[in-house]
């Protein structure tokens, strides 16, 4: 081959190589465009899923027919997407941004590292339960009999029972199994034995006080009212000290042999109170009160279904459902669930005097409710200048709306497919008020969703027993989120999780004042900034500290009377004879 032919061949090879490179570059460019188009389509699909949110495929929860229909994102959020002004729906701009964030994070494997764990686990784990330890002799109950009729719902009744146990020990009296007052609000005829195991309660407290199921025959015919042996809440100061009972109730007991407390509730001070008397209150709440098998068995079903019928039990299951708990094992990541107590019933909404965006119709409805149920509040509002709804909101005195709650959960980093158990019922505004929550978190269910009609039927006419199911399921959850720290259910659930949780059962307690400040930036704040501020506000409320003086041991059991700190040398307190 001569030189000209070689040059010609080289030129042809160069042209072919150049063609290959161009083709390769074109294919790479085409592939890049394909990936970009795929990402845009996937993102568009995810956003459309948020606006048309049916149940996530593969979820093995049982939904009722009432919750099976497709729930659309509120129309106001679509208007935000088109740049139009929102109408009525609170925080529409932030809700729309939350929808985008949840769509983008749907397939990410990572969540904030402390989302499902106690932030200060090492410190929290040093506190261990020890209220079951006793150092005194049993009380013989020689001074007479104490009867009690507790009012309120199951949570108020639980506090009343533990308080009256302490009073019985203080007065060396025999306690008759408590009665529960029928309320026109709760309309529940349940008595102690319909909720708690009577024999277990009596036997467990034998080393502390004497408990009987009824008065002796010779005392049943006494006219206690005529004998002035009926004591109501009006007769007892709120947070009464032990000295009050020794000065006024003990002489009455010694004289008439029987004292009947009616409406007894929060009528025993948290401090000052003798050390071992305080421990007795803890022992009653965390050890002596065990739910009846009927409630335990159904609650165990709720927990199992929230965990997708996993073959293991959670950390607290054995304490809550006893023999119905499955074998112990580590909770797998895929089977975790969040429990949410949304305290947004009409009584809370009306009592708050806050504005929830419903206009004149809402204001008139809440005012009519106040006039019937809170006449004293109406008189106070008319006589004095109550702060404006805006001021109440800024001070953190308004209950969190469902829209604010879902923004908090999204801001904390909970993924859209998170399984959420909603405790409580009768949300003010009904299902429409829950639209944002159920749309952004479609795997949110209630006990009514998870149980068949035959399974829930035995509880339908008994509000307190239904509340017991909420209490157990919320307490057993991997994370518990409350929207109002003053709620009795939230207080008891969080306290139980602290007592038995070993620092592994995180509770989300929002600081409503801080959140209110963040929510006021709805029209300007960017989502990343919102996330950062929300997480900081919630994290600050996860600090581990011992019970503040004067606060409830049922809510704050981290104190030497209830729990033992393995790393702190506690001051010695000598046993008392009470």
Give a short overview.
The protein is an alpha/beta fold. It has helices at residues 3-51, 75-81, 92-105, 121-124, 154-170, 192-195, 198-204, 217-220, 242-256, 275-288, 293-306, 317-321, 346-352, 359-373, 375-383, 389-394, 402-412, 430-433, 435-440, 447-450, 453-456, 463-476, 488-501, 512-519, 527-540; strands at residues 52-53, 71-72, 127-129, 145-150, 174-176, 179-180, 211-212, 230-232, 258-264, 338-341, 420-423, 444-445, 479-482, 507-508, 563-565. 47% of the residues lie in helices and 8% in strands.
Fold and architecture overview:
The chain has 578 residues and is α/β, with parallel strands linked by helices. The protein folds into two domains: 285 residues, no CATH class; 144 residues. Helices cover 47% and strands 8% of the residues. Strands 4, 5, 6, 7, 8 and 9 form a six-stranded parallel sheet that branches. The longest helix has 49 residues. The radius of gyration is 30 Å and the shape is globular. 39% of the residues are buried.
Which SSEs are present, and which pair or pack?
Elements: H1 3-51, E1 52-53, E2 71-72, H2 75-81, H3 92-105, H4 121-124, E3 127-129, E4 145-150, H5 154-170, E5 174-176, E6 179-180, H6 192-195, H7 198-204, E7 211-212, H8 217-220, E8 230-232, H9 242-256, E9 258-264, H10 275-288, H11 293-306, H12 317-321, E10 338-341, H13 346-352, H14 359-373, H15 375-383, H16 389-394, H17 402-412, E11 420-423, H18 430-433, H19 435-440, E12 444-445, H20 447-450, H21 453-456, H22 463-476, E13 479-482, H23 488-501, E14 507-508, H24 512-519, H25 527-540, E15 563-565
Parallel strand pairs: 4-5, 4-6, 4-9, 5-7, 8-9, 10-11, 10-13, 11-12, 13-14
Antiparallel strand pairs: 1-2, 3-15
């Amino acid at each position: 081959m001569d030189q000209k032919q070689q040059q010609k061949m080289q030129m042809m090879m160069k042209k072919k190589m150049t063609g290959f490179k161009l083709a390769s570059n074109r294919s790479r460019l085409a592939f890049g465009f394909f990936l970009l188009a795929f990402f845009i389509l996937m993102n568009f699909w995810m956003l459309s899923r948020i606006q048309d949110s049916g149940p996530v495929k593969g979820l093995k929860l049982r939904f009722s027919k009432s919750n099976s229909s497709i729930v659309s994102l509120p129309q106001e959020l679509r208007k935000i997407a088109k740049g139009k002004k929102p109408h009525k729906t609170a925080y529409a701009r932030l809700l729309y941004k939350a929808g985008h964030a949840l769509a983008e994070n749907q397939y990410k494997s990572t969540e904030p590292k402390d989302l499902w764990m106690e932030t200060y686990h090492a410190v929290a784990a040093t506190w261990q339960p020890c209220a079951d330890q006793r150092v005194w002799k049993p009380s013989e109950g020689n001074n007479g009999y104490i009867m009690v009729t507790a009012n309120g719902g199951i949570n108020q009744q639980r506090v009343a029972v533990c308080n009256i146990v302490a009073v019985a020990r203080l007065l060396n009296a025999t306690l008759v199994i408590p009665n529960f007052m029928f309320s026109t609000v709760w309309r529940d005829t349940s008595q102690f034995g319909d909720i708690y195991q009577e024999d277990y309660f009596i036997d467990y407290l034998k080393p502390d006080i004497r408990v009987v199921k009824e008065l002796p025959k010779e005392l049943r015919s006494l006219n206690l009212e005529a004998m002035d042996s009926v004591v109501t809440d009006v007769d007892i100061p709120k947070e009464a000290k032990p000295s009050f009972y020794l000065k006024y109730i003990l002489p009455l007991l010694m004289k008439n042999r029987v004292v009947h407390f009616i409406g007894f509730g929060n009528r025993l001070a948290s401090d000052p109170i003798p050390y071992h008397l305080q421990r007795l209150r803890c022992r009653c709440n965390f050890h002596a009160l065990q739910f009846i098998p009927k409630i335990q068995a159904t609650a165990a079903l709720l927990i199992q279904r929230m965990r997708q019928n996993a073959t293991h039990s959670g950390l607290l299951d054995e304490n809550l459902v006893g023999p119905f708990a499955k074998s112990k094992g580590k909770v797998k990541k895929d089977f975790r669930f969040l429990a949410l107590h949304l305290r947004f019933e009409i009584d809370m909404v009306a009592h708050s005097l806050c504005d929830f965006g419903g206009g004149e119709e809402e204001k008139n409805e809440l005012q009519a409710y106040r006039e019937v149920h809170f006449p004293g509040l109406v008189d106070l509002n008319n006589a004095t200048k109550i702060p404006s709804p805006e001021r109440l909101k800024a001070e953190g005195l308004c209950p969190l709306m469902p829209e604010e709650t879902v923004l908090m959960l999204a801001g904390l980093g909970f993924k859209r497919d998170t399984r959420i158990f909603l405790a409580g019922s009768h949300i003010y505004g009904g299902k429409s008020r829950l639209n944002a929550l159920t749309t952004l978190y479609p795997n949110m269910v209630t006990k009514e969703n998870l149980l068949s009609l035959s399974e829930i039927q035995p509880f339908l006419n008994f509000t307190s027993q239904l509340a017991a199911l909420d209490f157990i399921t919320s307490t057993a959850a991997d994370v518990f989120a409350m929207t109002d720290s003053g709620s009795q259910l939230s207080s008891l659930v969080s306290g139980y999780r602290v007592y038995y949780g070993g620092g592994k059962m995180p509770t989300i307690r929002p600081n409503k004042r801080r959140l209110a400040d963040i929510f006021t930036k709805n029209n300007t704040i960017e989502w990343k900034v919102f996330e950062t501020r929300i997480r900081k506000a919630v994290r600050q409320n996860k600090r581990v500290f011992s019970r503040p003086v004067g606060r409830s041991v049922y809510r704050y059991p981290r104190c030497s009377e209830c729990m033992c700190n393995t790393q702190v040398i506690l001051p010695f307190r000598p046993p008392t004879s009470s």
